[in-house]
Design brief:
Elements lengths: L9 H14 L2 H10 L2 H8 L4 H8 L4 H10 L2 H9 L3 H8 L4 H8 L4 H10 L2 H10 L7 H4 L6 E3 L4 H11 L8 E5 L5 E6 H6 L6 H4 L7 E2 L4 H11 L3 E5 L5 E6 H19 L12 H27 L2 H6 L1 H30 L7 H32 L2 H31 L4 H28 L2
Parallel strand pairs: 1-2, 4-5
Antiparallel strand pairs: 2-3, 5-6
Membrane topology: Multi-pass membrane protein
Function: Acts as a magnesium transporter.
Family: Belongs to the SLC41A transporter family.
């Protein structure tokens, strides 16, 4: 690649790729894709629409195709697998680990799955089938089932020799697990101790006999939060009987965190998990349309509330002009709180007594901001309409709605969490309904009582 054409960031990379595609510079495209790693190729593919992406697939080295396919968004993977035969998929998954095979086959139809299963190495097949026994949000589905484990009582020298002979260590290996004959976890040994300590010593002498472990049935979001809080790059995964079933590495935790963040962001906007930037038009429209329909129903609810005050609106035009201000201020205040609380829930920071502290804090924040901005809006309203009664009505309505909006921003996600409903998925819709209804009800209700 010529020096002047080298890129230093993603935007330059995309522009350079588009230039090569326009020029049909096959040699440069092959060179570029040979320089990129798996993750970079996957992110590059996700940055183009389907037709361009199909052209780029041709330049991915065959040895990397399976790993790239396991890394890209599920939507893209499904589109690619749809056009492949069972024989094609067999070639793609050859050499992949169990996690990657599970990712690829997850979007294949049952006939292809059955055929490919039969071609897998027996150990890999067993690991893949075990991964599929877990729900998608469990630690067991994300863990790496391949672990480096040895029996207690063996020497460090023997462990090193065993690892070298069987080529067990890879970039993600963090520790050696010590197990009994039933594969029950007894402890862990760091690679540093394995190399540094006297080689005639046994693993029992230097192992951590009380390692931090995760249960395979635990939710991945909770596990990621625990690992981040404890700054652990690696954790063994055990089942309810204490048997070692896998491990979570730093890369797994990063994937969990990123997936959780992506899902939360999409859910807060009413977008499905599968949609990505270049999802086809009809598929995107369908996934978003459902939540637009739900939002329409809540809008009609707010409209119904307004309709109950038709008499006061007919008499005072200024109320109709100022009404959106009340709903908007409450909506923004509530959304700020909702975002903070959902993030806190995702990080595992909200539990027990701190819920009450959070509730009180947001109530006071809402009242303080409500008072300040109620006075500001009230002042503007007085300058605009020169009517002290209208000024009083909108000042009180802003204060009430912003205070209750902050409280709702706390209560709604906590209640949804208790009901085992993702707060990010429906919290924003419910909050919008609450702030609109409370805003219109307080504003028009106060106007009816004070002005009429």
């Amino acid at each position: 690649m010529r020096d002047e054409e080298k890129y230093t960031n993603t935007e330059e990379q995309l522009l350079y790729l588009q230039k090569l595609l326009d020029e049909e510079d096959t040699a440069a495209l092959n060179e570029l894709f040979n320089e990129l790693d798996i993750l970079a190729i996957a992110r590059t593919l996700e940055s183009f629409p389907a037709k361009t992406r199909d052209r780029l697939w041709e330049y991915i080295p065959e040895t990397m195709l399976g790993e790239v396919l396991a890394e890209v968004d599920e939507d893209i993977r499904a589109d690619y697998i749809e056009d492949l035969t069972a024989s094609d998929v067999e070639q793609i998954v050859k050499g992949l680990d169990a996690q990657e095979v599970a990712e690829v086959l997850d979007v294949a139809d049952e006939e292809i799955k059955t055929t490919v299963y039969a071609s897998l190495d027996q150990e890999i097949r067993a690991q893949v089938e075990n991964l599929y026994t877990y729900e998608e949000d469990m630690v067991g589905r994300y863990m790496d089932p391949e672990t480096v484990n040895v029996k207690q009582g063996v020497s460090l020298e023997a462990v090193q020799r065993y690892i070298r002979i069987h080529h067990l260590l890879d970039d993600e290996s963090q520790q050696v697990m010590i197990t009994d004959k039933d594969k029950r976890l007894l402890g862990t040994l760091t690679l540093i101790d394995l190399v540094k300590q006297p080689q005639e010593s046994t693993v029992d002498a230097f192992m951590d006999d009380a390692p931090y472990t995760l249960n395979d049935q635990m939710k991945v979001s909770d596990a990621a939060a625990l690992l981040r809080s404890k700054e652990l790059p690696f954790v063994p995964v055990c089942n309810s009987e204490g048997l070692l079933v896998g491990q979570l590495n730093a890369a797994d935790v990063l994937e969990i965190t990123q997936d959780d963040a992506d899902m939360t962001l999409k859910h807060m906007s009413g977008v499905s998990d599968e949609e990505e930037v270049f999802t086809p038009i009809l598929r995107s429209a369908k996934s978003r349309g459902i939540w637009l329909g739900i939002n329409l129903l809540t809008a009609f609810l707010a409209a119904f509330v307004i309709g109950q005050f038709e008499e006061v609106l007919d008499q005072i035009v200024a109320l109709a002009i100022l009404m959106p201000v009340v709903a908007s201020m409450g909506g923004i205040a509530g959304s700020q709180t909702l975002t903070v609380v959902i993030r806190g829930l995702a990080l595992g920071q909200i539990a027990g007594n701190n819920k009450q502290w959070l509730y009180n804090k947001e109530l006071w924040v809402g009242m303080l901001n409500g008072l300040v901005w109620a006075l500001v809006v009230g002042g503007i309203s007085y300058l605009w309409f020169s009517d002290p009664l209208i000024t009083l009505v909108i000042t009180l309505a802003i204060f009430i709605n912003m205070s209750l909006a902050n409280v709702s921003g706390v209560l709604i996600p906590l209640v949804l969490k208790r009901l085992q409903i993702d707060p990010a998925l429906s919290g924003a819709v419910i909050l919008t309904t609450v702030t609109d209804v409370v805003g219109f009800l307080s504003f028009l209700g106060l106007a009816t009582l004070i002005i009429l």
